[in-house]
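seq as requested:
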Amino acid sequence: MKSTSNLEEQDKIFITRIAKKIHISGFVTPAIFFLEMTKPLALLGSHFLIFLGPIINSIIQSDSYYRSVEVFEEPDNIEILLKEIERLEGNSGNKEGAISEG
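struct tokens:
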């Protein structure tokens, strides 16, 4: 299992980028709910995505598809994504609170 310290820098950047996209989309609560709900099924889901890989890559042509599947194979990495989403949400809440008070 990878821990936060063993996670490669490009994987940290990838997770942060996903968290930012979720935060910007405004679907923070449904995303957190979905990720918490599916965390125990991470390994099974990653195997399913590997199975679908040839079909998805024929449509999307993503070089990082299999790397993404590998990153989210570990429930610890999903937890890192959840913490990053919550950190972004907390930071934006602090900024909005400071603006509305001033």
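The chain has one domain: 9-101.
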